[in-house]
Design a protein that fits this description.
Elements (H helix, E strand, L loop, with lengths): L18 E5 L2 H4 L12 H7 L16 H14 L4 E5 L2 H4 L9 H16 L3 E7 L5 H4 L9 H16 L5 E5 L2 H11 L9 H25 L4 E7 L3 E3 L4 H19 L26 H4 L6 E5 L4 E5 L7 E3 L20 H12 L5 E6 L7 E3 L2 E3 L1 H19 L4 E7 L18 E4 L4 E4 L1 H11 L7
This protein binds 5-hydroxymethyl-3,4-dihydroxypiperidine.
The site of 5-hydroxymethyl-3,4-dihydroxypiperidine has 8 residues, from loops.
């Protein structure tokens, strides 16, 4: 394709052993929601019942990845990537959450891993990307401390089966998203709006980070163990003491509560009075048991968040979108495009000095695509990736140890409460026919990744 925008970025800018991958997640792509003995997940329930989903969409069929994983993995390779990050559906392998293992579900992941390896694509597995078993949700889900045992059993089953071939493991995808949006804001499954549930779930998820990491290490020789966090740098319009406190509070509630306990730093309650009630869920010894020595942390960056002061002492601030202060391009998710936020996110995590390596495990954007004569043009997405990769290169040049970059996402898929409207893929999916078409952005990556490493693409 000669009409793709040129870039002076080269593969070599990112170092010799840099991992280039694409990411996606079980509920968002697999479909086959009842196939081969799979149990219900909270997202099955949420999309078929209480949840407000754009277009009344659901993941029943999604991208039919359950049946098309082999040819989809071929697309990963065709675009020049060498890694594919995917997640496991807990109720697909343990329909009742615990107890009886559904071999057909595990066999699917076995085949997927083998397909990756046969095609020269390294599998990177996330153990939990939001599709919690409904039967365990009925017993309180993440708010019930028994989840520590449930999760331990689940991780044991998965890693015992796949650990001979999968070396790269992430315990969670974005605890902030599924705990905060699912338990406090209520717009994601399980749809709770409760401060108590948010605090209980946050603490149990943080403990499960340690449980998961321990089980992976026990079952997998030479495991590379990490987790992923969405990193949302906060901004304020003003610069007063009230602005500073508002920013610190929202940062603590959405970012630090999920990062710092695992590093032995406790909960940031001084900056966020809202978090004080978390004490009620702490048991003796938790402060030690919660610690994790990660091999890496996956930084997921999409946007910065504007915050303004709010006269509620518990909260001090609220996330806020001001049309007057929108100086940036807006994606189909309504998110501002601010590439230098990626540099800020990586630099901030690096300043903790707690993990030897960072990966960008998600970064990408939803924009409307233009389908013309069999081509899918998405110049805004190409510009987005170009700008963000430049910021990643700048972070590496500044000494931040980043080992890889995963685009979100391989293909258009089910975008949770937003249904199928926002399209994040490098590959276009026609959801009526399941036909896949590599977008211009996919070819742009192909040219970057297949050029001789020092040549600009
Ligand atoms: O689609 C989601 C993904 O599941 C988690 N990270 C953010 C993506 C875009 O919203």
């Amino acid at each position: 394709m000669t009409d793709l925008p040129k870039t002076d970025l080269t593969k070599a800018d990112f170092g010799e052993n840099f991992t280039w991958g694409v990411a996606h997640a079980s509920y968002q792509v697999e479909g086959s929601w009842k196939a081969d003995g799979k149990g219900l997940s909270i997202w099955d329930t949420f999309t078929h019942g209480g949840g407000r989903i754009r277009g009344k969409a659901n993941g029943d069929t999604a991208c039919d990845f359950y049946n098309r994983y082999d040819s989809d993995t071929a697309l990963v390779k065709e675009m020049g990537f060498d890694a594919q990050r995917f997640s496991i559906s807990w109720p697909r392998v343990l329909p009742n959450g615990v107890g009886r293992v559904e071999e057909r579900g595990l066999d699917f992941y076995d085949r997927l891993v083998d397909s990756c390896l046969e095609q020269g694509v390294e599998p990177w597995v996330t153990l939990y990307h939001w599709d919690f078993p409904q039967v365990l949700q009925d017993q309180g889900g993440w708010t019930n401390r028994s989840v520590l045992g449930w999760f331990e059993e689940y991780v044991d089953v998965v890693t015992a089966r796949l650990g001979d071939r999968v070396k790269n493991w992430m315990v969670f995808n974005e605890p902030c998203s599924f705990v905060l949006i699912g338990h406090l804001l209520g717009t994601h499954a399980p749809g709770n709006r409760s401060l108590r549930k948010y605090l209980a779930a946050a603490h149990h998820v943080n403990l499960c980070e340690a449980v998961g990491a321990r089980v992976v290490r026990a079952n997998v020789e030479d495991a590379n163990v990490g987790t992923t966090h969405v990193v949302t740098p906060m901004r304020t319009v003003g610069n007063t003491e009230r602005d500073r406190k508002a920013k610190a509070s929202i940062d603590a509630i959405s970012n630090r509560i999920f990062w710092e306990p695992n590093m032995g730093m406790g909960y940031p309650v001084d900056d966020a009075p809202l978090l004080r009630g978390i004490d009620r869920y702490l048991k003796p010894g938790d402060d030690q048991d919660i610690r994790v020595d990660w091999d890496f942390v996956g930084v997921q960056y999409y946007q910065r968040q504007m915050v303004k002061p709010w006269p509620v002492p518990m909260l001090r601030g609220v996330p806020w979108i001001s049309r007057n202060h929108r100086e940036y391009e807006i994606t189909a998710m309504g998110w501002e495009v601010q590439p230098d936020g990626l540099h800020e996110a990586l630099t901030r995590w690096n300043s903790y000095n707690a993990v030897p390596k960072l990966y960008v495990t998600e970064n990408g954007a939803a924009f409307p695509d233009h389908v013309v004569d069999g081509r899918v043009h998405d110049s805004r997405r190409i510009a987005f990736y170009e700008a963000h990769l430049r910021e990643l290169r700048r972070a590496i040049q500044d000494g931040v140890p980043v080992g890889g970059y995963f685009s979100w996402s391989l293909m258009d898929n089910f975008e949770w409460a937003e249904g199928y409207v926002p399209r994040f893929g490098l590959v276009h999916v026609d959801f009526d026919t399941q036909v896949r078409t590599i977008k211009d952005s996919g070819y742009w990556f192909q040219r970057l990744l297949e050029a001789k490493s020092t040549e600009p693409a």
